[in-house]
Design a protein that fits this description.
The complex is a heterodimer.
Chain A: H1 20-29, H2 34-52, E1 55-58, H3 60-75, E2 87-91, H4 118-125, E3 129-134, H5 168-175, E4 181-185, H6 192-198, E5 201-204, E6 225-229, H7 232-242, H8 260-263, E7 272-276, H9 285-300, E8 304-308, H10 316-331, H11 349-360, H12 363-376, H13 382-405, E9 408-412, H14 428-432, H15 439-444, E10 448-455, E11 461-467, H16 473-492
Parallel strand pairs in A: 2-3, 2-4, 7-8, 7-9
Antiparallel strand pairs in A: 1-3, 4-6, 5-6, 5-10, 9-11, 10-11
Helix pairs in contact in A: 2-3, 10-12, 10-13
Chain B: H1 2-6, H2 22-30, H3 59-68, H4 75-91, H5 127-132, E1 137-138, E2 141-142
Antiparallel strand pairs in B: 1-2
Classes of the chains: A alpha/beta, B mainly alpha.
């Protein structure tokens, strides 16, 4: 794959170098400088960022310095690593040492973490260049990036529409060419849904695949970091770098993971692709149409389509909206005006906590803290939180049964293409439905990814979601690569 | 494992008959009726209707929860939150139909046991740097207002 890709031969024309794969190859070979590629991306940011607002913070000077350091390594005959000169945008809920980390919340405004998240350390060690911190729904709670305290991000394909969320800034940054790749976090679909709406690849790995150390916690049993990229190979490259055990995260899976770059060299001949016959309805016709074509494409590539049932799938929303807010209400208790960010001065600590939290949190965050606190409170724990945990078990068990007959499952990533701003109105439940196809995966702890698969209404991107059992990343990526090849063929026709 | 296997032969409760849950929401509010397949939102094969409760939440409940959550909600926020939480809990009633008696709760996805590490002294975070990020610090410590309430 690498050998077949064209590599530009001089700095005057880095335009052909768009994937992380090509960038790293060219920078390592010394045919293009990381410095020139950073300037190319900064120029793209200067041109469209005022309109799109993908970033909370652009790190132009730091990125230039990091790129110069990469070029210096190459000039000295050293290898900067597999992501040499690759620009990466980080969702602004990942800690960056000495660099503002806000979670798009007023309560963390001005906070500079005293350490780097493990993913940031690993990216830099591989030669990547951090170009900025991206916008999100406050504390990653939302599906449109409309809930940011710093204003919404716009979809690069149609700025009158949302980019999805909560990792909307990271998805938009890659779709707009602001960075080669980006990282997001996915608690209930926050990588896959914006990837679908912005027409890029987005991966939510198996729970424990990527270290959560330095990821600001939303719902700790569901949160997972993953990449946004323009190609499946780039996603594999990135996960091979950021994945793997980390002693700083006690939920990090201790065994080594096989290379996903190697995995996608294999085709899908004989792979069993499951169709969930009792999948919750509600997807728009244009999305369903594209999904049927995705089944056809995988069948044509040699995969076997099988019918499976996941009866508990449809209870995912209820279980999720009890479990995630419950965990969030506990995790967000730390924002009390003592250690970070905002404080509203008050005569005693209790008054300070309540006043600070009231002023610092946005509406959706407060709503989830309230819902979670209620679900955990005396007298209601068994009826809500306790019951949701049992439903979570049913969902995981139903998936386990389905994966006896199928190696991967194929579903829509989002019920619709990107929707206009404000179209979900005042009813929070309308927004929650955006994640109906992504949420059960998080509850089970399984991996899932969205791959761009053509366009639907108004020429807007549609994402096909591939699901796999725990640590089923290799077969998930094989199916994704097959869909990508089919799309390349379709576009060439 | 309870509900699914134990009652797999039981008749199916179809969604259209459900009085609450996400299914009705999809139909009435989101405007997209279930269209595909033999099943729809909120339906579950073999689900046995046990106790379809409609727990309501009062403004007094919400005020108590706000105190527990340390949120100084305004009256307007309290009213709105009461309406919204009541609406959500209504939709969450879809799981009331499930017999979960013998199902073990699942608190996290990965079957972890205790994780140990060698008891070795390592440098921690830089104290001055951590304190510099706090709203107020003094003598190497976080500074807070009186813990014993003056307001009470």
């Amino acid at each position: 794959m690498m050998a077949d890709d064209p590599i530009p031969t001089n700095d005057a024309d880095p335009a052909g170098t768009t994937t992380a794969f090509d960038v790293a190859a060219a920078v390592r070979a010394g045919t293009v400088t990381a410095a020139s590629l950073v300037e190319r991306d900064l120029a793209a940011i200067a041109a469209r960022e005022p309109e799109l607002h993908a970033f909370n913070l652009v790190l132009a000077d730091r990125a230039r310095a990091e790129a110069a350091a990469v070029d210096a390594l190459v000039a000295a005959g050293n290898d900067p690593g597999p992501l040499a000169g690759v620009t990466v945008a980080l969702k602004d809920n990942m800690c960056t040492h000495g660099v503002l980390t806000t979670c798009s919340s007023k309560i963390l405004e001005g906070w500079k973490p005293p350490y780097d998240a493990t993913v940031v350390t690993r990216l830099r060690a591989a030669g990547a260049v951090v170009i900025g911190k991206t916008n999100l729904d406050e504390f990653a709670m939302g599906s449109s990036t409309e809930n940011s305290a710093f204003g919404p991000t716009r979809n690069p394909h149609d700025p009158s529409r949302v980019p999805g969320g909560s990792s909307g800034g990271s998805a938009a940054a890659v779709a707009a060419g602001f960075s080669r790749v980006s990282l997001g976090s996915d608690t209930g679909g926050s990588i896959r849904q914006p990837a679908a709406l912005c027409g890029v690849v987005g991966v939510k790995p198996t729970y424990g695949y990527v270290s959560r150390y330095g990821l600001v916690a939303f719902a700790s049993s569901l949160d997972q970091i993953g990449p946004f990229t323009t190609t499946v190979a780039d996603a594999a490259l990135l996960l091979d770098v950021i994945g793997g055990h980390d002693p700083m995260d006690s939920t990090s899976i201790p065994q080594a993971q096989p290379s996903l770059l190697r995995a996608i060299e294999q085709d899908v001949e004989g792979l069993r692709v499951g169709r969930i016959t009792d999948l919750p309805a509600g997807a728009d016709d244009d999305v369903v149409e594209r999904l049927e074509l995705a089944f056809d494409a995988l069948r044509d590539a040699g995969a076997k389509i099988v019918d499976v049932r996941v009866p508990a799938f449809s209870f995912g929303l209820t279980a999720y909206y009890l479990i995630a807010p419950a965990e969030a209400s506990s995790n967000l208790a730390r924002y009390d005006g003592v250690r970070y960010g905002l404080r509203i001065e008050s005569p005693d600590t209790n008054a300070m906590y309540s006043a600070t939290r009231e002023a610092g949190f946005g509406e959706e965050v407060k709503r989830r803290i309230m819902l979670g606190t209620y679900a955990l409170s005396a007298g209601y724990y068994d009826a809500y939180y306790g019951k949701a945990l049992k439903v979570r078990r049913l969902i995981a068990d139903d998936f386990d049964r389905a994966y006896q007959d199928a190696d991967v499952l194929l579903t829509p990533a989002s019920p619709s293409v990107a929707f206009p701003f404000g179209s979900k109105g005042d009813n929070p439940l309308a927004m929650y439905l955006c994640d109906v196809y992504t949420i059960p995966t998080n509850l089970a702890g399984h991996p899932g990814m969205s791959v761009p698969f053509g366009t639907g209404a108004d020429g807007l991107p549609v994402g096909a979601q591939i699901l796999a059992p725990a640590l089923g990343e290799p077969q998930m990526f094989r199916a994704a690569a097959a869909l990508e090849r089919a799309m390349t063929k379709e576009l060439a026709r | 494992m309870g509900a699914v296997r134990a009652s797999s032969g039981a008749p199916r409760a179809h969604l259209a008959g459900c009085r609450s849950g996400w299914a009705r929401f999809v139909r009435d509010v989101a405007g997209c009726a279930p269209t595909r397949g033999e099943t729809g939102w909120g339906e579950r094969a073999g689900a046995r209707i046990l106790n379809p409760v409609s727990d309501r939440i009062t403004a007094a409940d919400v005020a108590k929860v706000a105190r527990l959550a340390r949120l100084d909600l305004t009256d307007e926020e309290l009213q709105r939150t009461t309406v919204q939480l009541a609406g959500m809990l209504e939709h969450f009633a879809d799981i009331d139909a499930l017999d979960l008696t013998d199902v073990a709760p699942m608190t996290q996805p990965y079957p972890l046991v205790n994780v140990f590490r060698p008891d070795v002294v390592k440098p921690g975070l830089d104290r001055d740097e951590v304190l510099a990020a706090a709203p107020a610090a003094e003598d190497g410590r976080f500074r807070v207002p009186p813990v014993v309430g003056l307001a009470e």
